[in-house]
């Protein structure tokens, strides 16, 4: 059996939790990563990273190594998701373009093959695909598709479902269509509503489109889909969400109060 790719934050896990900190794409922006990390109190909080740790910015290596140490130190409180920029073959070939992490590894660690085998691949294989807070929120990197028929499809996803979760994007319409990225789908309001009902949540929080959330969270699909960004690499604002663990529904109704700029 494959490793369970879904992290479930059930009520007993959230008991005595102060807040849930959500971090979007970082893309090699080490300063934003350090500021995000400083928000986290490991005795009281959960911190969830939504993927895309390297590429575009200059310090993907430092972010990956720092995040690995943070997970090792607080394995029950730090949750890291896989993004499409963590999508590689077993031989270390990226499934996306452009990929600058390979060249960064040559400059800083003496080569890609050893870094990938010893450091990066062990990190990637242990990343989750999704996090769910039952009856409240689904956290993913990219999005959803109609291939997701139940919560079990996120626990043990097929490769097609994994691609959809990593690569898909919402759009302001209805239906599901081929994504211009060449992978995943674009999904409309009816699809997000259908998937939320099937897995028992009210909304989806995702990243994957930093420019869409260039100044603040982008709220779509009648409040059902929220996109965030935690990187400055595009010259935009970076932010985290700091959500009260015991009052999530109210927090999403007044989301701007829970934005922390990095």
What is the tally of beta strands? 14
Q: What CATH architecture do you see?
A: 4-Layer Sandwich
- How far do the termini sit from each other? 40 Å
Quaternary structure classification: single chain
**DSSP helix count?**
9
What is the gyration radius calculated from CA atoms? 17 Å
Fourth-tier CATH superfamily name: Metallo-dependent phosphatases
Strand neighbour order, sheet with most strands: 1-5-6-10-12-11
Largest sheet: 6 strands, mixed
Secondary-structure-derived class: alpha/beta
Number of domains: 1
Mean pLDDT: 96
Question: Low-confidence parts lasting 5 or more residues at pLDDT below 50?
Answer: none
CATH topology group: Purple Acid Phosphatase, chain A, domain 2
Residues in helix, %: 25-40%
Q: Which series of helices and strands comes N to C? A: EHEHEHEHHEEHHEEEHEEEEHE
Strand content: 15-25%
Please tell me what the overall shape is. globular
Specify the CATH class.
Alpha Beta
